[in-house]
């Protein structure tokens, strides 16, 4: 094309407005964009200050095919019903501080709502080359705003990222087209309250800006939104601090010449290599660069961001001196810039397999190589998203978006997505404010929505991204807009009186409930853990703890630590130092079974690694420290002289909520075998499940002196009955049915034949040393790589959090609530555990015995069966899909594969008398459910009490008749 007013090469006259629009759309700088837009407005005789009609006038005067494609996009967005054709906030005047991506996106949303929007930016250049990860909804959102019209490469193909600079330019152009007033080189200084004298002239809230002569100083606003990043110049918002261990990030941008060789280099999304130990070990051995993670994106530049370890930076000469204070450590005077450039270049070259032909640094707006090193040990989040200030009869709605509201953790890639969600949430709040709703209602709704923001991920927000709007119900599934009540947010209204000032300080403060840990204190805590481990394992054979890695490789130290507090769980003298795999697996299994501490890897992996990962070991051992730090371990030799009460106190002192939850999540298929001669397991709980006992001869429910171990089984039964009577007297009428059922069960087992002494007591049916293909690095379900930070463990299996689902219905499981079938190696939710034999699996079951068929006939008239879903919770048995299709006659309790709690001693008794499993299964179900249903539900209702008694009588009488037949 020629110049404005000229001709094309074909002789056609060029429309100057078209040329100016192209120049505006292709502008690559902030100042260039503003200049091109102003020239276009001057040529078309348009005034952007006429914000209500500006966009419509621009459309009518610019009849250009390229512009029409953009108008179609913007018209579709503006046509959403929530905007009410641009009249939803027609009388609102909004000030936005900061022209970052979130500030600009908020301005655009308010522009669609019809508000007058003024945006301030203290700089006049967009110079940040850093690349942002985009969630699917952000890509859809930007496409709907015409991003492709301004940046043709936007998210082409599988690309899901964009540089901050390009994103700012796109949003700036959209904001200008909507009539938003943007001022650069203007800095916000503070708020000016309305004067007391409002009689002669009504003056509202104003902003104090620099320079003082700028016309924005005279404007009044009723809404102000802070989007100026972490520093946040708006006063009055308390901030919570999230502090982790020392984390030093390095960002580097290299020139992208867009050559064929550069195009072939694969990106590193952060998921492929993060926590890939072999990759980082190879990097350290080859270059001396020691990283925790690295990401590489290809955009306008080759963008790398990595987390470097401090010791590596010291060894490479990047950091000159080691200071305890992080600011001094990373101060410019303590950093060798040339060494930093070399460090970043080596990391980038190795991570791309030396495929980038040149690694020349891009230049930032200071004229320096675009490399930065910073600390993100601490991250901040505002306690509240908004507040209202009220002075002299005038109200001001104050809110935050972007990093000012919720600072992101960059490896997670959540910053821009949550920033856009907050921008739309703020638009919804301003809409409610403009409609005249009370300040308390507006604030309560905004805070209810804000509670969801930190939890959002691409997986838990609404999947239909094309229907997203300013209405939060289109974006957050199952949201409760009235989660908080208006009286719960009264402290967010600042009226300026003394009581208000006590409720909300007029300055940025960190939440005092969050302990401030310096880096020295963090190091001290690691040393404290090591010292504690050394004290607890001192004096044990072949155990010398000098660190938190190699000293634990043999497994002896771990077993010694457990033995120190629970000598009944591990026979330490029998351990072989050379059998590292068995030692570690034993320690891992005992810790998981008894204390609920999930293993960090398998015993086989622990024995094979050259050096255990320090972070994993610290996390693992810290759980022992938290559990035992307030517990006095038994002294050497004292355990034999301890009274039964002291032994019980020792065991109870090592019980933790973690242990309780872990045991609730144990498999339903549990086998508790015992040796009658040793009486290692004395009591039976309400589920018929044997409780573990210690080698000292005591159980969790009762204490038996050593001299009583040789009593006959009948004495054991009498003791059980006596204990049950005492328990009944203590808890009152609540456990009467449970007591009756337990005593009845004890009588059934009175004369049962003894099992073999060689039977080994087990915690579950799974093997003592599970053989997992791929070990802890491979997900048990999907067989893909599972990294440390996303790994869970149950039943000796390791898996992704997202893969831990019920095999029957696909619902996500929790470690505290699942069922595991040892035979087929599958996990189930508790309601569907009973259907594991349905369908094809059920057809493989052996044919029922004549005794079982006879029992089914006898049970046909009995009421519907209730069953136990786990050791700790009783539920009505849900009908299987097949049962749902049958007619309304009650289903026989023996005709469906319902879950049962094993009673090991009943089976030998039945076999001895030639009776099938049918009656036994009925008895087990009935007693188990009745005991726990009564335990869980207070017997306030006479009907429930009568029904429980009826069930016990019906089922047990029928079972007894079959046993004696």
UniProtKB/TrEMBL annotation:
Q: Which reaction does it catalyse?
A: L-methionyl-[F-actin] + NADPH + O2 + H(+) = L-methionyl-(R)-S-oxide-[F-actin] + NADP(+) + H2O
Please state every residue range assigned to the domain named Calponin-homology (CH): 523-629
Q: What do the Gene Ontology cellular component annotations say?
A: cytoskeleton; nucleus
SUPFAM superfamilies this protein is in?
Calponin-homology domain, CH-domain, FAD/NAD(P)-binding domain, Glucocorticoid receptor-like (DNA-binding domain)
> Top EC class per UniProt?
oxidoreductase
Which segments carry the region annotation Disordered?
A: 669-735, 869-895
- Regions of compositional bias (Basic and acidic residues) in chain numbering: 678-688, 704-713
Membrane-crossing segments per the record? 944-964
Location relative to the cell = Cytoplasm, Cytoskeleton; Nucleus
Cited SMART domains: CH, LIM
LIM zinc-binding domain: residues covered: 777-839
Question: EC?
Answer: 1.14.13.225
Please indicate which superkingdom the organism of origin belongs to.
Eukaryota
Q: Per the UniProt entry, what are the Gene Ontology biological process annotations, in alphabetical order?
A: exocytosis
Cross-referenced Pfam families, in alphabetical order? CH, FAD_binding_3, LIM, Rossman_Mical
Any one GO molecular function term: F-actin monooxygenase activity
Q: What keywords are annotated for this sequence in UniProt?
A: Actin-binding, Cytoplasm, Cytoskeleton, Exocytosis, FAD, Flavoprotein, LIM domain, Membrane, Metal-binding, Monooxygenase, NADP, Nucleus, Oxidoreductase, Transmembrane, Transmembrane helix, Zinc
List, alphabetically, the InterPro entries matched: CH_dom, CH_dom_sf, F-actin_Monoox_Mical, FAD-bd, FAD/NAD-bd_sf, Rossman_Mical, Znf_LIM
Identify which cofactors the protein needs according to its UniProt entry.
FAD
Family the entry assigns = Belongs to the Mical family.
**The protein, known as:** F-actin monooxygenase
Organism of origin is: Coregonus suidteri
Q: What is the lineage of its organism?
A: Eukaryota, Metazoa, Chordata, Craniata, Vertebrata
């Amino acid at each position: 094309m020629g110049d404005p007013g000229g001709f094309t090469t074909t002789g056609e006259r060029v429309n100057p407005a078209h040329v100016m629009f192209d120049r505006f759309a292709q502008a690559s700088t902030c100042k260039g964009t503003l200049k091109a837009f102003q020239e276009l407005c001057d040529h078309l005789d348009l005034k952007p200050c006429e914000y209500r009609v500006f966009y419509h006038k621009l459309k009518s005067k610019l009849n250009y095919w390229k512009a029409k494609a953009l108008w179609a996009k913007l018209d579709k967005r503006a046509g959403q019903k929530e905007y009410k054709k641009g009249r939803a906030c027609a009388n609102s005047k909004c000030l936005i501080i900061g022209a970052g991506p979130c500030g600009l996106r908020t301005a655009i949303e308010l522009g669609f709502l019809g508000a007058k929007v003024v945006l301030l930016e203290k700089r006049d250049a967009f110079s940040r080359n850093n690349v942002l990860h985009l969630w699917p909804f952000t890509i859809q959102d930007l496409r709907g705003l015409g991003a492709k019209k301004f940046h043709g490469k936007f998210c082409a193909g599988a690309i899901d990222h964009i540089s901050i600079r390009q994103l700012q330019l796109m949003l700036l152009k959209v904001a200008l087209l909507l009539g938003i007033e943007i001022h650069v080189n203007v800095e916000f200084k503070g708020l000016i309250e309305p004067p007391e004298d409002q009689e002669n002239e009504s003056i509202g809230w104003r902003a104090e800006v620099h320079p003082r002569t700028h016309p924005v100083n005279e404007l009044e606003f009723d809404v102000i939104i802070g989007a100026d990043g972490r520093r946040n110049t708006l006063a009055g918002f308390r901030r919570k601090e999230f502090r982790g261990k020392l984390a030093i990030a390095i960002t580097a941008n290299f020139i992208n010449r867009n050559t064929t060789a550069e195009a072939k280099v694969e990106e590193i999304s952060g998921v492929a290599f993060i926590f890939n130990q072999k990759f980082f070990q190879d990097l350290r051995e080859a270059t001396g660069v020691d990283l925790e993670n690295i990401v590489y994106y290809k955009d306008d530049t080759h963008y790398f961001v990595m987390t470097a370890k401090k010791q590596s930076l010291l060894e490479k000469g990047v950091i000159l001196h080691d200071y305890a204070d992080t600011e001094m450590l990373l101060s410019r005077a303590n950093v060798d810039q040339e060494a930093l450039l070399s460090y970043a270049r080596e990391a980038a070259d190795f991570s791309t397999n030396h495929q980038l032909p040149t690694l020349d640094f891009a230049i930032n707006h200071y004229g320096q190589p675009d490399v930065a090193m910073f600390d993100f040990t601490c991250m901040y989040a505002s306690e509240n998203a908004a507040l209202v200030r009220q002075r002299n009869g005038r109200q001001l709605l104050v809110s935050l978006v972007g990093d000012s509201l919720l600072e992101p953790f960059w490896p997670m890639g959540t910053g821009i997505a949550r920033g856009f969600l907050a921008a739309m949430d703020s638009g919804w709040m301003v809409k409610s404010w403009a409609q005249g709703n009370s300040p308390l209602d507006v604030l309560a709704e905004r805070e209810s929505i804000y509670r969801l923001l930190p939890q959002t991920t691409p997986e838990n927000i609404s999947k239909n991204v094309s229907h997203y709007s300013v209405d939060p119900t289109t974006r957050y599934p199952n949201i409760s807009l009235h989660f908080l009540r208006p009286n719960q947010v009264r402290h967010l209204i600042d009226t300026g009186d003394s009581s208000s000032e006590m409720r909300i300080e007029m300055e940025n403060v960190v939440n005092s409930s969050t302990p401030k840990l310096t880096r020295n204190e963090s190091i001290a805590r690691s040393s404290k853990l090591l010292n504690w481990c050394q004290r607890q394992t001192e004096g044990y054979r072949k155990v010398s703890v000098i660190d938190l890695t190699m000293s634990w490789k043999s497994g002896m130290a771990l077993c010694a630590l457990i033995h120190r507090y629970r000598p009944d769980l591990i026979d330490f003298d029998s351990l072989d130092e050379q059998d590292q795999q068995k030692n570690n697996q034993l320690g891992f299994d005992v810790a998981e079974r008894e204390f609920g501490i999930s293993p960090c890897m398998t015993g086989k992996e622990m024995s094979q690694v050259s050096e255990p990962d320090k972070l994993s070991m610290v996390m693992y051992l810290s759980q022992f420290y938290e559990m035992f730090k307030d517990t006095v371990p038994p002294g050497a030799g004292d355990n034999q002289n301890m009274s039964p009460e002291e032994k019980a106190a020792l065991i109870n002192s090592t019980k933790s909520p973690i242990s309780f939850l872990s045991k609730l999540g144990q498999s339903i298929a549990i086998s508790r075998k015992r040796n009658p001669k040793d009486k290692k397991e004395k009591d039976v709980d309400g589920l018929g499940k044997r409780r573990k006992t210690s080698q000292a001869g005591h159980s969790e429910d009762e204490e038996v002196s050593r001299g009583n171990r040789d009593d006959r089984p009948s004495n054991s039964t009498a003791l059980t009955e006596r204990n049950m009577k005492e328990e009944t007297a203590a808890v009152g009428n609540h456990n009467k049915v449970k007591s009756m059922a337990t005593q009845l069960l004890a009588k059934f087992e009175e004369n049962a034949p003894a099992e073999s002494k060689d039977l080994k007591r087990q915690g579950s049916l799974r093997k003592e040393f599970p053989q997992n293909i791929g070990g802890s690095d491979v997900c048990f379900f999907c067989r893909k790589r599972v990294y440390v930070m996303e790994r869970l463990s149950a039943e000796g299996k390791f898996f992704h959090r997202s893969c831990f689902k019920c095999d029957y219905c696909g619902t996500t499981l929790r470690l505290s609530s699942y069922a595991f079938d040892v035979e087929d190696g599958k996990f189930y939710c508790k309601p569907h555990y009973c259907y594991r034999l349905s369908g094809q699996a059920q057809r493989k079951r052996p044919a029922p015995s004549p005794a079982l068929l006879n029992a089914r006939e006898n049970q046909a008239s009995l009421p519907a069966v209730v069953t136990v879903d786990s050791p700790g919770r009783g539920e009505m048995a849900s009908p299987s899909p097949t049962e749902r299709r049958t007619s309304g006659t009650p289903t026989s309790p023996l005709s469906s594969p319902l879950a049962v709690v094993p009673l090991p001693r009943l089976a030998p008794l039945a076999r001895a008398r030639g009776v099938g499993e049918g009656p036994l299964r009925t008895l087990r179900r009935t007693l188990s459910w009745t005991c726990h249903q009564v335990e869980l539900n207070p017997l306030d209702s006479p009907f429930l009490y009568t029904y429980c008694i009826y069930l016990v009588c019906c089922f047990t009488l029928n079972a007894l008749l079959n046993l004696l037949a």
